[in-house]
UniProtKB/TrEMBL annotation:
<dbReference type="InterPro" id="IPR016163">
    <property type="entry name" value="Ald_DH_C"/>
</dbReference>
<dbReference type="Pfam" id="PF00171">
    <property type="entry name" value="Aldedh"/>
</dbReference>
<keyword id="KW-0028">Amino-acid biosynthesis</keyword>
<protein>
    <recommendedName>
        <fullName>Gamma-glutamyl phosphate reductase</fullName>
        <ecNumber>1.2.1.41</ecNumber>
    </recommendedName>
</protein>
<dbReference type="InterPro" id="IPR012134">
    <property type="entry name" value="Glu-5-SA_DH"/>
</dbReference>
<feature type="domain" description="Aldehyde dehydrogenase">
    <location>
        <begin position="8"/>
        <end position="281"/>
    </location>
</feature>
<keyword id="KW-0560">Oxidoreductase</keyword>
<comment type="pathway">
    <text>Amino-acid biosynthesis; L-proline biosynthesis; L-glutamate 5-semialdehyde from L-glutamate: step 2/2.</text>
</comment>
<dbReference type="InterPro" id="IPR000965">
    <property type="entry name" value="GPR_dom"/>
</dbReference>
<dbReference type="InterPro" id="IPR016161">
    <property type="entry name" value="Ald_DH/histidinol_DH"/>
</dbReference>
<dbReference type="GO" id="GO:0055129">
    <property type="term" value="P:L-proline biosynthetic process"/>
</dbReference>
<dbReference type="GO" id="GO:0004350">
    <property type="term" value="F:glutamate-5-semialdehyde dehydrogenase activity"/>
</dbReference>
<dbReference type="InterPro" id="IPR020593">
    <property type="entry name" value="G-glutamylP_reductase_CS"/>
</dbReference>
<comment type="similarity">
    <text>Belongs to the gamma-glutamyl phosphate reductase family.</text>
</comment>
<dbReference type="GO" id="GO:0005737">
    <property type="term" value="C:cytoplasm"/>
</dbReference>
<dbReference type="InterPro" id="IPR015590">
    <property type="entry name" value="Aldehyde_DH_dom"/>
</dbReference>
<dbReference type="InterPro" id="IPR016162">
    <property type="entry name" value="Ald_DH_N"/>
</dbReference>
Length: 427
């Protein structure tokens, strides 16, 4: 086996040292009072705004480096901060401060026949590793949600945002210190090599959970290689099915909203499924509505052109499973609601899938048989969002089935423990 280089060893040593420091301060964070958490979050929000000039200077360095490296403008936009965006990030912290603290919530309990009082309560997960891509706002979001839920944040952002992330973490650590809290409650991990991700996700005994947030490659790399428990915040190959009994104009409005509102988010509609029993003129109306909105339609050219459609991009097998995150959409005809369910079962990532119909049977069958974190009945896929759900800020959308599923807000960043209180009882 090849010996690691001095640089690679130093990087690994730094990750593990920071993980040990995080583990050491975790009990302090776990027992913080709600007023202390909120006071710190509000101070962090104010400080980010007052030190915006420092943040923007650091961010400009990353922008210039990214542009010089040929980074796409869409990615540069995700990376870029402004005074308005910083205010939005600060507003997110204030929102978290206003949310109910999940720690200590009693989920259930009773007194045993022998007199022992037992209760199940929410407690923090502990050390929360976060692996994410370009967006610097995630750095602050993760800190805020971790602090409010009593967790310690170990953050591994992307190399493209390292100067921005370093400045943001420095400011957050300054706020922690000013409030007599350990700076180690939030730490930024090195990002020189991809191996530092592996160091984090295999730090068993030091890291309690790791959460990836980004594209499919990043998520798969974390989930498939982690020895630490991982919560999969999945990609969104979201479907919108238009049933023969749909209100067509309403369906088109929902479809366009899901596709065009924000193309770069995981709840964007990526596939439109059209009931084969719809009149051809209605099918064509759906396709043209998409194209008129600037969306490139991918599908079976011969079938869609037979309807009168033009400028169709021939779909390959990957078009049905891809998360475009662009002004592209796959369109297919299916045989009724069962055909839609079968297509979704084959290609969906289990994020959000939707149906438009006025038929109660079709709606119920779709709701019962589509196995996704969110199922929309006569609503746009764009509604899968923790804030929209009334949960406040979210760390991501979980597409797995264990521990958390759907928007992950504060309660999903906790686990539980049982506390039994007796008076000397023995068994």
């Amino acid at each position: 086996m090849t010996e690691p280089t001095a640089q690679r060893q130093a990087e690994r040593d730094e990750v593990l040292a920071k993980a040990r420091a995080a583990k050491q301060v975790a009990p302090t964070l776990a027992t913080l009072s709600t007023p202390k958490k909120n006071e710190t979050l509000l101070a962090a929000a104010d400080t980010l705004e007052s030190r915006a000039a420092e943040i923007l200077e650091a961010n400009q360095y990353d922008i210039d480096a990214g542009r010089a490296a040929g980074m796409a403008e869409s990615l540069l936009d995700r990376l870029a901060l402004s005074e308005d965006r910083i205010s939005g990030i600060a507003g997110g912290l204030r929102q978290v401060a206003g949310l109910e603290d999940p720690v200590g919530e009693v989920l259930r309990g009773h007194t045993m026949d022998n007199g022992i009082a037992m209760r199940q309560v929410r407690v923090p997960l502990g050390v929360m590793g976060m692996v994410y891509e370009a967006r610097p706002n995630v750095t602050v979001d993760a800190f805020g949600l971790a602090l409010k839920s009593g967790n310690v944040a170990l953050l591994r952002g992307s190399k493209s945002a390292r100067t921005s992330n370093a400045k943001l973490v420095e400011i957050l650590q300054d706020v922690l210190e000013a409030h007599d809290l350990p700076r180690e409650a939030v730490q930024l991990l090195p990002c020189e090599t991809h191996d530092s991700v592996q160091d984090l996700i295999t730090a068993r005994g030091l890291v309690d959970v790791v959460i990836p947030r980004g594209g499919a490659n990043l998520i798969n790399a974390v989930v498939e290689n982690a020895t630490v428990p991982a919560i999969e915040t999945g990609t969104g190959n979201c479907h919108f099915y238009i049933d023969k009994d749909a209100d067509l104009d309403m369906a088109i409005t929902m479809l366009l909203n899901g596709k065009t509102r924000r193309v770069s988010v995981c709840n964007a509609t990526e596939t439109a499924l059209i009931d084969a029993n719809l009149p051809d003129a209605d099918k064509l109306k759906v396709i043209r509505a998409l194209q008129d909105a600037g969306v490139a339609v991918h599908g079976a050219v011969d079938k869609l052109e037979a309807l009168g459609a033009t400028d169709i991009v021939e779909a390959t097998e990957t078009d049905w499973s891809v998360e475009y995150l662009s002004m592209d959409i796959a369109v297919a005809e299916v045989e009724g609601v069962d055909g839609a369910i079968a297509h979704i079962a084959r290609f969906s990532t289990g994020h959000t899938d939707a149906i438009a119909s006025k038929n109660a049977f079709a709606l119920r069958r779709f709701a019962d048989r589509v196995d996704s974190a969110a199922v929309m009945l006569n609503a746009s896929t764009a509604f899968t969002d923790g804030e929209v759900y009334g949960m406040g800020a979210e760390i991501g959308i979980s597409t797995q089935k264990l521990h958390a599923r759907g928007p992950m807000a504060l309660p999903e960043l906790t686990t539980t423990k049982w506390i039994l209180e007796g008076e000397g009882q023995i068994r």
